[in-house]
Design goal:
20 strands; Rossmann fold; 6-stranded parallel beta sheet; 6-stranded antiparallel beta sheet; alpha+beta; Tumour Suppressor Smad4
């Protein structure tokens, strides 16, 4: 088996966890590819790290990708894999670890399970982002969400929003989140948006600090195209954030979003289930009285 490793380069305090990961991968007999920047970083911490090949963007040929870090690292690993749809499993050295579900202590068992087929793969939809702003987006695909946001010093942002060319609403507020089912438990949840099961064929639109109580989150099928055109009387720019990667665009730009033609394949432990993740990670239904 060929395994590629992608990691967070701010883990100086996680040296032993990183060492344990590479030792577990080596013990499994796998051929180990490592993203070039991460390999250089790891060699600065562990000079004798066991790796067979450094790979750059577009060079991944592995059967499985390992993301080591937190959920943010997993999102960047998904962008690194891109349309190749190589399955990804996340080893959590961060905080919540909602996407990065495997602990370092369980890596050896999990890697052995990969060889035995003791895992399952969930296909997760992505949002594709296009704009007429004439500015290249660093990442055009979101596994979690696309957020359209006012600038920090600006007043309200007006966002004329249509679904399949039919006018839906003009959202007034600090911004608008368009989230996938995977991202429904992230930024979307923090602004009061609904949780969607990962298998749902839907997207959710959730306003941020809406200027009206009638502007509520809305779930739409993932077969539609969503278009958002920004307006503001006091600002010349706004921000768009694609899975946390932010860029300023000129007011008046139109953002178009639709389901991408490819997905992210998430590798999960055989016993993993959505309800368990809600209870264990989000303390769903916990009674703290």
């Amino acid at each position: 088996m060929k395994i590629a490793v992608y990691g967070n380069q701010c883990q100086d305090h996680k040296v032993e966890e990183i060492r344990a990961l590479f030792e577990a991968l080596r013990a499994s007999g796998a051929f180990i590819e490592v993203e070039r920047g991460f390999l250089e970083y790891v060699k600065g911490l562990i000079p004798d790290v066991a790796a067979d090949k450094a790979v750059g963007d577009g060079e991944v040929s592995a059967d499985v990708v390992v993301s080591i870090g937190g959920d943010g690292t997993f999102l960047r690993a998904a962008a690194w894999v891109g349309s190749r749809e190589t399955p990804i499993f996340g080893v959590n050295t961060g905080h919540l670890g909602y996407l990065s579900d495997v602990s370092v202590a369980d890596v050896s068992t999990f890697v052995a399970g990969l060889a035995d087929g003791n895992f399952r793969i969930e296909r997760r939809s992505l949002l594709q982002v296009d704009t007429n702003a004439g500015v290249a987006l660093a990442n055009r695909y979101a596994l979690n969400e696309v957020a359209i946001l006012k600038n920090a010093s600006a007043s309200m942002l007006a966002m004329d929003t249509s679904v399949d060319t039919t006018m839906l609403n003009t959202y007034l507020g600090d911004g608008l989140i368009i989230a996938t089912p995977t991202g429904s438990t992230a930024y979307n949840l923090s602004v009061g948006g609904p949780i969607l099961h990962p298998a749902c064929s839907s997207f959710v639109l959730s306003p941020i600090a809406a200027h009206s109580l009638t502007m509520r989150p809305l779930v739409v099928p993932d077969t539609v195209e969503i278009a958002v055109t920004t307006r503001s009387e006091r600002s010349h720019t706004f921000r768009i954030s694609v899975d946390g990667e932010s860029l300023s665009l000129p007011i008046g730009s139109t953002i178009r979003l639709r389901k991408a033609d490819f997905c992210v394949n998430v590798v999960l432990r055989a016993g993993h289930n959505f309800a368990g993740a809600l209870r264990n990670k989000l303390m769903w239904g916990a009674d703290v009285r």
